[in-house]
Amino acid sequence: MHRTQRKGAEGFLRALVSVLSAVARHAGSFKKRLTILEERLLHVEKRLNVPPTS
Predict the structure, then answer these.
(1) Would you give the DSSP letter of residue 49?
(2) For 50, left (φ over 0), alpha (ψ -120 to 50), or beta?
(3) What is the mean pLDDT of residues 19-31?
(4) In the chain, where does DSSP find H-type helix?
């Protein structure tokens, strides 16, 4: 049972990755939005005095 669950999870993750990569390929504006989101996250982290996750 665990084996089939793991394979299902792996298949789901692979599908998710392929979808995300396709989206990233097709949308250059998507990357811009991502960088904007990252910058906002950095601002929030600085406000909360949380050490950067990287």
Answers:
(1) T
(2) beta
(3) 78
(4) 2-26, 28-48
